[in-house]
Amino acid sequence: MPAVSRRAVLGGAGAGLAVGAVGGAWGGRASARDTRPSPGSARVAFHGPRQGGIVEPAQARVEWAAFDLLPGTGRDRAAGLLRDWSAAAARMAAGEPGGDGGGGIALDAGPNSLTVTFGFGASLFDKLGLADRRPPALAALPAFPGDALDPARSDGDLWVQIGADDALVAVHALRVLRRLAAGTAAPRWQMAGFSRTPGATARPMTGRNLMGQVDGTNNPRPQDPDFAAKVFATGPDWMAGGSYAVLRRIRMLLDDWESLPTDRQERLVGRRKSDGAPLSGGPDAGERTPVDLAATAPDGALAIAPDAHVRVAAPASNGGAAMLRRGFSFHDGLLADGAPDAGLLFAAFQADPARGFVPVQQRLARGDGLSRFLRHEAGALFAVPPGAPEGGYVGQPLLEG
After folding, report:
1. Per the domain annotation, does 375 fall within a domain?
2. Which residues contact 71 (CB under 8 A, 6 or more apart)?
3. For the segment 51-101, what is each residue's pLDDT rounded down to a tens digit?
4. What are the Dyp-type peroxidase C-terminal domain coordinates in residue numbering (predicted)?
5. For residues 84 and 90, what is the distance between their CA atoms, to the nearest angstrom?
């Protein structure tokens, strides 16, 4: 079956949503929705110059997992694991069985835009005798004000990101990879998140986070002339075309946030809650209206407040620093005090964290009014190698070079 464009499938899923939702099985008839292309048939090829799960639109479900190599694991066994993982990921991305494991929970599902992304932590290089090939950009991140990172849910030798538009497909893929890792690597931590389901809105729209804010408007876009320079690394040799992923589990103080009036929330963000338009753009602005950091309100005050998130995070406020953000919401029940254990699984892909995430986060930690409602509870940094060609596996130039 030829690969299906995910964007084409999503475009079909958005049209006629109301018709499909109203008619259908209740009257014993097939609804109009049943005649549209199924989002489950959309495929993202595993093999290629770059790994999937970076530039593709965020899927409805994500699974993150980190693994640590077992004692005595050498380079050959690690290479064997990446070879097995890559082969299984390629099969599942094509909608084929991944192999043993997974419990058969996805047997009747299509690929659902499945992507599997692999990353290497700094600790991997020492364990495999590859310290001389560890890239400088993988240096430990500095401590940021307000961080309370749990070591048990941070870092790791290997990272796996699984995205899919069906939760069972994503969980199945994770089960397959965990089974393949047995005897070579042990799970260190695992997190799950979600995003908007394809077709949930009448037209394609930027998603919202659990604060209700449109999230991701000013992300770099592949058509930008400097996109590759911001997102993809140029070296060392085995990392050329790869990227660096900074991960954060950010809990939101939702009860406190929701007690604020909407205009106060908008001031802290710098955008209207209703449509994501910048407060600097006036009543006719839309989500894509450029932010004007110099604009003033009728009373002479800055339209975008000095501590508004969009001002503090803007490339213009950080010497041009930028990164490709890929966020997913999480909601893991309640804490002991009854507050929701919920927030954002934040991934930022960039060519060099020292020029991307680090300067922006340092400024956010010092001056972002939104930070009073956020708690950074886990974090990690991984080198994400380029993709693998047919017959190869992710990380092969490093592990066999």
Report:
1. yes
2. none
3. 999 999 999 999 999 999 999 999 999 999 999 999 999 999 999 998 877
4. 207-387
5. 10
Q: Are 72 and 393 in contact (CB under 8 A)?
A: no
The pLDDT assigned to 31 comes to 35
Active site (annotated) includes residue 215: yes
Tokens of 225: 């002339």
Q: Which residue has the tokens 């909601």?
A: 331
What confidence score (pLDDT) does residue 37 get? Answer: 59
Domain assignment present for 333: yes
Question: What is the tally of structural domains in the chain?
Answer: 1
Strands 324-334 and 340-350, how do they pair?
A: antiparallel
d(CA 384, CA 387): 9
**Which tens digit of pLDDT belongs to each residue from 209-251?**
999 999 999 899 999 999 999 999 999 999 999 999 999 999 9
Mean pLDDT of the chain: 91
Longest dimension (CA), the chain: 68
Range of the domain at 48: 6-270+305-399
pTM given for the model: 0.90
Query: Shortest CA distance to 216 belongs to which of 326, 317, 318, 297?
Result: 326
Residue-level length of the chain: 401
8 A C-beta contact, residue 52 and residue 45: yes
